[in-house]
Each structure stands twice: as structure tokens, then as C-alpha cells.
Amino acid sequence: MKKLNIYTVVFSLLVLGGCSDFLETESLSNSTVDNYYKTPEQAYNALVGCYDGVQALWSSGVSFPVASEVLSDNAFGGTGYSDGYGYQLLDEFDKSRSPSDLNMFNNNWIAYYKAIYRCNILLQKLDDVEWGTDADLRNIYEAEARFLRAYMYFDMVRLWGNVPLLTEPSTENLPQATPQEVYAQIAEDLKFATENLEAKSYASQSSSERGRVTKWAAESLIGRVYLYYTGYYGASDLAGVISKTQALAYLEDVIANSGHGLVETYANLWPAASGTNYAKEDNKETVFAIKYTYTSDYTTGNDDGNKWLVMLGMRNYSSYPYGKGWGGVTVNPNLWDAYSSTDTRKAASIISIEDENIAFDQQADQREYTGYYNKKYTPMINLNGESVSAELASELGLNSDFQISQFQDYVVIRYADVLLMAAELGSSSAQNYFDQVRERAYGDDFVQIPITQQSIMNERRLEFAFEGIRYWDLLRQGVDVAANTIAETTQVLNGGVETTKTITASKIQETKGLQQIPNTQVSLSNGVLKQNNGW
To answer: Which family is it part of (predicted)?
Structure first.
């Protein structure tokens, strides 16, 4: 983490466009940090740059959603039979599986700090803007930037445990903050967001507003952060900033006043599962999502696509509506078996090669083949066998292909999560909230079961499979709980040959569930950064 390596970013990066429909602006090549930030329009352009920074977090490296599933008991590392073993290193928490992979998250580490730098620059310069009649926008823009910063720090502190905490632009070689310090900042940022974002209901938002941070997103994220922090660290409140009563009140506010609700049919939440009934992005259940488009272009360097989604597709094989991908994150059969036959989430979440009569013939090219792939986030093809995303890009005359033009948004928080978090925190309506989620899943086969901590956790696994939630739900129940749940010895097909796959609890316990800080960053810091145990 040598000076200027991570935190410095040229100003032109601050005003990139293309995050989504509302995030469009032009690059201002003659602008600098010193002569910019004078008008509300310039502040808005810089805010767009903050969103764009979040969109670019996983353009390379290992995405947080993908890593979260590999680390959990939902899936194995997978990938190609002749690929490196980096995903097995993650899956088994064992650096000896791929000793040369010392920097799997390096590009992500850099991208997180670049995006945080953008947010910090904007926050520092807001008082330099001549707001005039737009003075009401100042605190709204601050609230959005602080939410995005909090969201990113929450990713980072869960992955690495101890990270440098920057709340203003800096190029200093800073030591890691304590987790409590980072979580306290996250809590303060989210509190500010709840107090300064408009309480617009979902129905009253224009189509151009959807995709931007809302009061409801901030309140919902507080619930998630509270549950993780108090669980993993055994604390009674969120870093001394937010109590259990307050966290629940935020979630109850979302339920009572946001206008969000459950999409009636679970499969309709996901493009590949819904047929012609897709509820589309920004539906009423989406509380917060990271936006992507199909406008990536090799020639211009425009990079707006969901580049990590291709990792999840079937290995080099397409079968309508599923497009080919790289075979990462093969589904653990015990997840398929965990669903009841009457649970509609089963077929909506998982591609079953056998049950869907898919003539998959790439077993020899697939590592850790199980016969199951993720359906929620997968590339798609049309009836002619063409990549949907690449075809759309081609119609715009773009030099693109399916690897960079995937455009499915990553839904970070759904309303179903709000209901289950409120139930877990002891709402007086807990049974009702719990039942709403399950009634949708089972339809006419719904049977009420009592709420317990275990029944909530079981339901969360089935409801949020492949959404980057399960691993953190396990870890917040305690490292030993996570380790013993994830550990297993089973049989998979490597290159078509049955092979024993082993994940040991001791490795997860040794690392405390944390990931390797990129070795390059440790080296550049000249010892200021300390590596996590077990890595």
C-alpha cells in the first residue's frame, strides 16, 4: 500500500457515466479537483462517479457475490478442469491449494478504495458548491455518497476483518482500523442517510429515480449490518451507535411506509427462471441493487456490464434460455436436497441438468461438476442460440461480446430480506412476516411452522441462495457454526472422473472466516498492513 498506489485516482475517473438509466454524464477532461465542484450539476456528475465506482468494484478479480457463494455451503469453486485452483483455495480456505494465488482480491481491494476515494472527494467538496435554489440537494447527495461508502466498507470489513478506514481523501500509508471503528463509521453513515434521504414510497418514485439510494435502502442495510456485527463479534449493539430496538424500528419503517412488497411469484424475480413473466429490474421487491447495462465496448473502454455473471454459467455449454459461462460456483447437491419438492424456489434457483433434460456434454472440461448450476444469475441466450446481451450490444453498433455485456443487476437487498430480518429481531409481527415469505414459496402447499432462530436461518438459506448472503448468515452465528456447517467430504466429477472433495472445519476456524489480504498490498505497505491468520 505504497503512497499513491491505492487511493489516488485521476479526476476523469470521477465523472464516468453509464451506471444505469439515470447515471449518464459526460467526461470532463479539462476539469480538476481544484476547479470543479462549483455547481449542483458538477456535484451530481461527481455523485454519478461514486455510483460508477460501485458498479466497477468487480470488473476484475473475484466479485463479492461470487466469493460469498463459493465460501458458503451452497456451492463449490468449480471452473474449468484445466484452470488454476484459485476458486478451490477460496472454497477450502486453504492457501496450499494454489500457493501462487497471493492476490486473488487485489484488483477488488484497489477498486474499493478508488470508489471510496470518489465518495470522500465529493463529501469534502460539497460545501464548495454554489447551491443557490438547489440547497436541498446538498444533504441528499451527501446521504447517497455516505450510503455507498458504508456499503463498500461493509463488504471489505467482512472479507478482511481489518482494513484502513479513510473518511477523507488521503494518500497516506495508513494502518488498519479496528473492526469496531469501521462499523461505527458504517453506522454513522447509514444513520445520516436515513435522516436525509426523502421518504418517497416505491410507487411515487419515477423510473429515472429507481436505482438510486433511498431512505428504505439505508434503513434495510442497517438491519443487515446490525445482525452481522452483533452476531460475529458477540456484541449487544452496533458499535455503540445503534441498538437492537433501533435496528428493528428501521426495518419496521420500511415495512410500514416504503411501499415495497413481495413480487407475487418467486420465479419472476429472476430472468432465466421467469419465462416471459420476468418482473424486471427495479420491481417492487428490489430495495437496493447495483446497476449494469449491455453498453460495454472493447474499443472505447466503456465498462458497464456485469462481468462476473459469466463465471456462473454452465461450462462452455448453452441450452435455451441458459447461455454458456465458465462453470464457476457449481451447486452443492445438499442445497438441492434441502428444498422440499413443493417449494417453488427450488426450480427457480437451481438449474438441474437431469431434471431439465439438458444434454450437457462438457463434464470433461468441468471441475467439481455436480449436475447443478445457479439459475438466478446466469448468462442467457435467445431461441436462435445467440447471447441476449451481445445481441443487444450489437444492435447499438458496439464492439462487445457476452463476456462483458451481461446486464443483469445485482439485487443487494430484497423486501423478503427486510421481512425476515425484522422477524429475527423479534418484531411483534414476526410470525406474519415469516409466513409471508413462505406462503409465496409454497403457494397452496403452505403449512405454517413456528419461528425459531434455526427455522429463520433455514428459510434464509432457501430464500436467498446465490444472492451473496448465506456465508455471512453462517458466520454471524459463530465461526464454529460456520466451520462445522461448511465442512464436508463428498464426491464430485473433475474432468469427468469421480474425485473426493474435502473441506475441513479447522481451516475455517484458523482463518476465522476472513480472507487473505492481497499480498501485493501487504508488501507495498512495508509491513504497515498485517496479514490475517491462516494466510
So the answer is: Belongs to the SusD family.
- Tell me the residue range of the domain where 521 lies: 62-95+306-383+484-535
Report residue 261 CA to chain centroid gap.
Answer: 21
Rounded to 5°, angle at Cα 260 from 257 and 266: 150
330-367 CB burial, b ≥16 within 10 A, e <16 = bbbbebbebbeeebbbbbbbbbbbeeeebebebbebbb
> Which residue reads 460545501 in cell numbers?
127
pTM exceeds 0.70 for this model: yes
CB 423 within 8 A of CB 451: yes
Same domain, 56 and 70: no
pLDDT digits (tens, 9 = 90+) for 149-207: 999 999 999 999 999 999 999 989 999 999 999 999 999 999 999 999 999 999 999 98
Judged by DSSP in three states, 80 sits in strand
CB 415 within 8 A of CB 405: no
Report the run of H or E that residue 489 belongs to, with start and end.
Answer: strand 488-494
